[in-house]
Please model this.
Amino acid sequence: MAPYLELVGIQEQDSFKVWAHGYPYETVRWHFHPEYEINLVTDTTGRYFVGDNTGMFEPGQLFMVGPNLPHNWVSDVPDKRPIAQRCIVLQFSGKTLSRGIAAFPELSYLERLLTQAQRGILFSPAVARRAAPLLNGLLTLSGVQRVHQFLLLLDMLAHGQDSTLLATPAFRPDPEGYQSSAINQVLKYLADHLGDRLREIDLARYASMEPSAFSRFFHRHTGVSFVQYLNRLRVGRACELLITTDKPVTSICYDCGFNNVSNFNRHFLALKGMPPSQFRRYHELNAEHEAYG
Model:
């Protein structure tokens, strides 16, 4: 299954994003994003997936993944009880850190850490124990103290010993291919649920995207807006039912997801140049002509 694109959304006034989430959580799925991520497991056990590598995780483990490297942590919670805090996550842009390294050449040693993270890193228990208080502190710090502690964390990770690289050297992330697959999943979902109430905000959530980003993403791949595509799809399905069934027009209207007949007629007329009843009659006449022609 192709990974989903996660929109990290680092605020303009911040150089990185740090947050904690529990279980279950909506973005806990096989996904990728252009940002680097540091992930400290604070509760639950289960299986991790990073690139083409998988293994078991437990509380206290610390991971780092690079840009567009697919990853997921699947907790094993038999009774599905909610967990208040499963992990602490820190995400930052490689461009932001590259600009920092350009401004402060003393930070150039961090480039090796960034390179290793492109395969995913599982840090040693000793490094994880030292890093945990720093990550916890970053949840509440602000200003220069926040930046200072972030750099201390990166310094600690860069000098850590006995780290394990996870994905094999042959694994190559394919973000363009992932996103192409993501749109196919969205379009299949639309086709399978035409009779349901379909809102753009719900499909954005299904694709793990912010609504504005999903709108641009959808238009880029289809050439039309979400609403235009959905109406075309519904009218197309209505045409199939008008030709192949004897269902009343009103029933077809609701089967295809339109909320009232007048709205259905309006969109059908705009796309087909005639109302649904006339479309059906034309096809009936054509069938009769072929039968007796």
